Amino acid sequence: MTSPSATGITTLLHAWSRGDSEAMDALVPLVHTELYRTAQRYMARENREHILQTTGLINETYVRLCKLEGVEWQNRGHFFAVCARMMRRILTDYARSRPRVEGGRPPRYIPLDEAEPELPIDMDFVALDDALNALAAIDERQSQVVQLRFFVGLSVKEAADVLGVSERTVKQDWTFAKLWLLRELSK
Asked: Tens digits of per-residue pLDDT, 77-93?
């Protein structure tokens, strides 16, 4: 199901990939609401004293987007997945820059249910990033499924379209990845 705005976003992304600098300017107002929702999901799980606010996270994402060169955007799902990964990196970089509790943090149970994937409010982004990187070393696609479903909030069908695989494959990857991440994050 492709809405006119999704088609418009994809058209602008393709123009931006070809070097049309005005396409980025036209793209920002079309994607801002969705990026704001994604940033809100991330920031809702951060400590209230976090140095970044939702708008700051979006602004930092835009700055990094402007620095990208040679990206051939496939579609809006690809764009939002890259943005979500950037947001994750920004928050992970921040978390890595903070002093860690000596001896590490206690293990946490991370619920990854099918309907509404949620992270706990006091999420350890460093541990999650490390676990996702370890999963990517084993199976890159499964790591991408987690990013698309969990962080971007795409449906199984949307994730399948972005990855160019069947919905059944996404469901299988999603099930395995959830179990694998639960095991890794509870160590």
From this structure: 888 888 988 988 888 88
Q: How confident is the model at residue 168 (pLDDT cuts 50, 70, 90)?
A: very high
Q: State how far the alpha carbon of 101 is from the alpha carbons of 65, 114, 124, in Å.
A: 33, 32, 12
**What 3-state class would DSSP assign to 133?**
helix
Contacts of residue 43, Cβ cutoff 8 Å, sequence gap at least 6: 50, 52, 53, 54, 57
Q: Examine the pLDDT at 33 and tell me if it is beyond 90.
A: no
DSSP state of 101: P
For 4-139, where are the alpha helices, taking DSSP H only? Answer: 4-17, 21-43, 54-67, 76-97, 125-138
User: Which domains are delineated in the chain?
Assistant: 1-73 (no CATH), 99-187 (1.10.10.10)
3-state secondary structure of 56: helix
Rounded Cα gap, residues 43 and 55, in angstroms: 10
Contact between 106 and 122 (Cβ < 8 Å): no
pLDDT at 114: 39
